[in-house]
Amino acid sequence: GGRFFDQEIVDYVCEQFEEKHDIDLEEDEYEYQELFVRAEDAKIQLSRQMKTLIPIKVERIRENIEITREYFNEVIEKFYKRSEFVVKKAISEAGLEIKDIDKVILVGGSSRIPYIQERLSKILGDVISREGNPDEVVALGAALFGKQLTEKAETGKRIQDVCSHSIGIAV
């Protein structure tokens, strides 16, 4: 997920800055935490553009560390491969094949990353839907499921849990 991607960017920035200026950004707690905010912004920008800059200001040193989409794709590949394995396993455990899938709804902010969309499209084909807001679709799905449970009406549609995590609601 996104937090792992942010950590990779922060690690890269810290490494680059320390090589250039011999200053460990992790020692400055405030600056280090601020890096996570900037890393998240960079990740979002890299979904729209090919490179971005992360500004660092420590003592009298001002530096902009460049992150390219190419580098970002390289560092998130290991995380994507784990996700791909989970997707294939979920399809298999549901007793389905890829050809049986009509639509795939991507969930979460990381699903906006072009690399992830491209790689998933390669294994799943043209079934990836971009009609819902990735930040809201889980809540909408839970609401539909709740409605289906309370009304006990046959709508002709079936909700099947193929997620490795259960959906839980606490009140």
Regions with pLDDT < 50 over 5+ consecutive residues?
Answer: none
Structural class: mainly alpha
Kindly state the percentage of residues in helix.
40-55%
Strand order of the largest sheet: 1-2
Largest sheet: 2 strands, antiparallel
User: Helices and strands, in N-to-C order?
Assistant: HHEEHEHEH
Strand percentage? 5-15%
**Quick one: overall form?**
elongated
Rounded mean pLDDT is 86
Helix count equals 5
Intertermini distance: 26 Å
User: What's the β-strand tally?
Assistant: 4
Please state the CA-atom Rg, rounded to the nearest Å.
20 Å
Descriptive account of the structure:
The protein is mainly α and 171 residues long. 51% of the residues lie in helices and 12% in strands. It is built from five helices and four strands, in the order ααββαβαβα. It has helices at 2-21, 29-45, 69-93, 114-124, 137-151; strands at 51-58, 61-68, 104-105, 128-129. The strands form two sheets. Strands 1-2 form a two-stranded antiparallel sheet. It has a two-stranded parallel ribbon with strand order 3-4. The longest helix is centred in the middle third of the chain and has 25 residues, at 69-93. It starts with a helix and ends in a 20-residue tail after the last helix. The mean pLDDT is 86.
Could you name the key traits of this structure?
two-stranded parallel ribbon; 4 strands; 171 residues; 51% helix; mainly alpha; elongated; two-stranded antiparallel sheet; 5 helices
